[in-house]
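Researcher: Next entry in the queue.
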Amino acid sequence: MICPSCHRQVPEGAHFCPHCGTPIDDKCPHCGHQNIPNAKFCAFCGRPLLAGTTRRPQGSFTPTEDIYQEEEKTYEPEKVSRKVNWKVVLISVLVLILATTGAQYYLKHSKSIKFSDASPSVSEEINSIVKLKKTTDIEQYSNLSNDGMVAADDHYIYMSNANNELVKLDKKMNVIKNYGIKQATYLNLVGEKLYYTDSNHHISVLDTKTGKHEILQNVGAFYMTYHDNKLYYQNDDDNESLYVYDLSTKVSTKLLEEHIYNMNFVGDTIYLTGKSSIISYNMTTKATDTIYNEKVYGSVYNDGYLYFITDRQSLGRVSVKSKESQIILTDMGYSMFVMSDEAIYYVGTDAKMYRLDLSTKKTTAVYQFQSHRINGMQIVNDHLFVKDNQDWKVVNTSNTKYAVIFEN
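Model: Structure for this entry, 408 residues:
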């Protein structure tokens, strides 16, 4: 039992609360059985308990239903006219049609709605998103600075699926071939040959038509980049130095005793991201020069400038001729970016992907990441391939529509 005054536990059969002394004797005057406090009928014989049988502590709450007894009333239903006012009905229908049409127009043309539905997957919506063509040199160098996880030509896209297996997709993002190659990175597509590094970072090649693949060099290769029938790479087995593998002679040669990372080819010059600077290497004269004397993350060449992320997580650029540098953006959320011939794409501190137009300098949001786990950024003809948490998505940056390609 519970005391109605102090609400503590009371032993069954008690006549007074042992904690506060409140009387709790609620015996039925008919059968003598103990009832719970405030009971109106006996739980054992069903007879009504007499007034005063149930005791209440002084100052306790008494339900209003025990104080007020409202007189029972009978209500007559109001007579309602059943005549239909068709004029009102027609006006209501017209207003509804106009409101629906206006809402659809607003949803279609409103600039405030930037991001499409999270799960468009039918081929019609994919077709409205992907307009496929071969990646440009700038896009390729940009992708390789971010592990080179996507490569494309005018017909197909090559990338890893949810199980990290290299697959071939058509324009509708349908998998038409699974090569069974695990963890392929630094994809360089040259005709029907796809050069890549395998799970052990060995230099490898895949014939995309026959599916045959083989290891070309048993070394630890990173930032591998194809140029003029040669594969340039960072040799992790030799102090991260610059090496080149000649596809004709099948011989590797050391070019530079420097810690180097990603690279950009412009004529006879390779612009390299070093350990604490950006340097140039002339492939003809073998001469080197320091372009920017600070630590950076990644660098992409575009129209006389090298764009990079500073150690303070800002986006900057330096002229390869004058060596003058400037900071472009400071609201970077991650030390990575991708670049096309027309724009730079980066992630802000609000986990949104932004597009910075190089000609107009205008910045627009093109994608909202669903989490702060951004595991990949690649670009193909101004289309973004983003790995949001573990889901690969393709984003059309012109209309901000996107679709899930591989979902975990």
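Model: The longest strand covers residues 175-182.
Researcher: Noted, moving on.
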